[in-house]
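Dock adenosine-5'-triphosphate; give full complex structure.
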Amino acid sequence: MSQQLNPASLSQTAEGTSQPADFASRMEGERSRGKGRKDRVVLKVDNLRIHYATPQGDVIAVSDISFKLYEGETLGLVGESGCGKSTTAYGILQLVQPPGYIVNGSIEVDGTEVLDLEEEELRKFRWTGLSLIPQGAMNSLNPTMRVKDQIIDVIEAHEGKQSDKEALRERIFGLFQNVGLPNRIYNMYPHELSGGMKQRVCIAMGVALHPTAVIADEATSALDVVVQRIVAQTLIKVKDEIGVSLIVIGHDMGLLAQIVDRIAVMYAGKMVEIAPVENVYAQPLHPYTQLLIDSIPSIKERKPLKITEGITHDPRNPPSGCIFRLRCPFAWGHCAEVEPRQIMVEDLHEVACHLYDEQFHERRANALATIANS
Ligand SMILES: Nc1ncnc2c1ncn2[C@@H]1O[C@H](COP(=O)(O)OP(=O)(O)OP(=O)(O)O)[C@@H](O)[C@H]1O
Ligand code: SF4
Ligand SMILES: [Mg+2]
């Protein structure tokens, strides 16, 4: 990775037009994000830890992560494959299946502790409190059921048998309108729909019961770039129209830049940085976030593709101290001894790295000087 440490907390700005800053400004004009209210928290995750038991020991999939989702906000959750994004989503909805299990944590939705809910309460909570559009959802639509029946199933499972069929049909047409689907698909089967249409059916199902928040796990993966954009825009349109908060899980930093308010970056089960999207693209603070931003390809500026290895350690035996230290160009002895805590460097911007601890300001300055001279 190129060494690129430009911490906002030091009031430094990126020299010249680095690719990430350039990228962020390019996206600024196109971005269509909701203006989340930062005064009401709808989802609060505290110290969530989830393991998968294996004969060789527990895989630590999610390791004591904490974050908040605000009303009307769209939060992007990013990180490389296997870092624990889907497990986090399943954990929040209490859908982790054995051999996975929640070790500890607290998940509050609108003030209700999800981990205290009984099975029947949980069943109601899913879809109405918080709904999940799971990874690969569009391929899990029942191929033998018409679209309308799959949506009706979701509605009736929570609201009971609907006697007014005409009203039910109008309600489904309303959902189709929300997600930009034509009414003609009402009687169709999933195989008659394109990938983008199927994904929008999944979004319609996810918002059918007007939940407080929706988690969309890789909703745009496996779609071509144009359709990805349409599906992403659909998510934002629905969010604004229905008034839900949204967590978008994804790999595509470019697409996320256009639709989210804040980005939460995970590395090997840990939350390493959470920040407003502008900060992440213009001045990423955590060395891992810098690596992610540095990996975004640019058409304007052709540069060699960076080949970097992925998560290097065994998830059953994470390194002591900082989870990223085996790949971090700035690591020093302290990083192996003490796990960094999440430091609030400015409003809504948190980073888990010792370099942002005031007691190490000299080391941070030295790191900056090294980079400036390199
Ligand atoms: N059933 C399981 N048994 C053992 N380990 C598992 C199981 N399911 C997931 N894991 C491990 O948990 C970790 C987190 O997986 P998870 O699917 O949450 O990652 P992810 O960030 O969603 O990845 P992707 O981007 O590929 O979807 C990985 O190390 C994965 O190998
Ligand atoms: S705490 Fe140390 S090893 Fe971890 S990211 Fe910061 S400098 Fe690198
Ligand atoms: Mg996943």
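Observed: The longest helix spans residues 225-243.
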